[in-house]
Amino acid sequence: xxxxxxxxxxxxxxxxxxxxxxxxxxxxxxxxxxxxxxxxxxxxxxxxxxxxxxxxxxxxxxxxxxxxxxxxxxxxxxxxxxxxxxxxxxxxxxxxxxxxxxxxxxxxxxxxxxxxxxxxxxxxxxxxxxxxxxxxxxxxxxxxxxxxxxxxxxxxxxxxxxxxxxxxxxxxxxxxxxxxxxxxxxxxxxxxxxxxxxxxxxxxxxxxxxxxxxxxxxxxxxxxxxxxxxxxxxxxxxxxxxxxxxxxxxx
Length: 251
What we know:
Distance between the termini: 57 Å
Number of domains: 1
CATH architecture: Orthogonal Bundle
Low-confidence stretches: 103-108, 111-120
CATH topology: Helix Hairpins
Structural class: mainly alpha
Shape: rod-shaped
Order of helices and strands: HHH
Number of helices: 3
Radius of gyration: 57 Å
Helix content: over 70%
């Protein structure tokens, strides 16, 4: 009976040992995964901060660049207007002058007012066309700066959204794993308590078995002596009966 109890206790001890090992491994894995999630969150938060600072610097540079570009365009437009006014006034003066010059003062016919006007107009056209091209290029640059800024802002907004989603997912996973870690720690504590009780029971059964063995050894050790003493007792009783029945031991 005691040996059967010891065998059952030993089997339970093995099962508890396997359970303890499994729980210990699970706890170690959960701790590692939680640490990795914490590191990911921290890294993502650092990346978010760096991206925000970079975006702020880019936007500041954009504001300065587009402001400068608009100032250049404004100055070029002012210059274009003045040139147009200048050439328009010069053309009027030439026309007036040609109309006031007497035709008989010279043997050669006076130059055509229309021809003089074309000379001025040709110079004005080249300068104004060049200036218009410069203004157009400056406007294109402003448009490209604006497009680049909008694209950068869109990319930054998408990165912030993705990073935020990732952080929230990691934190949710951490919360779940932290709960699992607490449950496994509680199960491990309970298992260790069961192991202590199991070991105490095994120790008691072992002591009881030793006591049984000691008693059996004692019985076996003195069995022959007790048997001989028993035989002597039986012989003595037999002799006593013979005396009481009148047996003659002298014959």
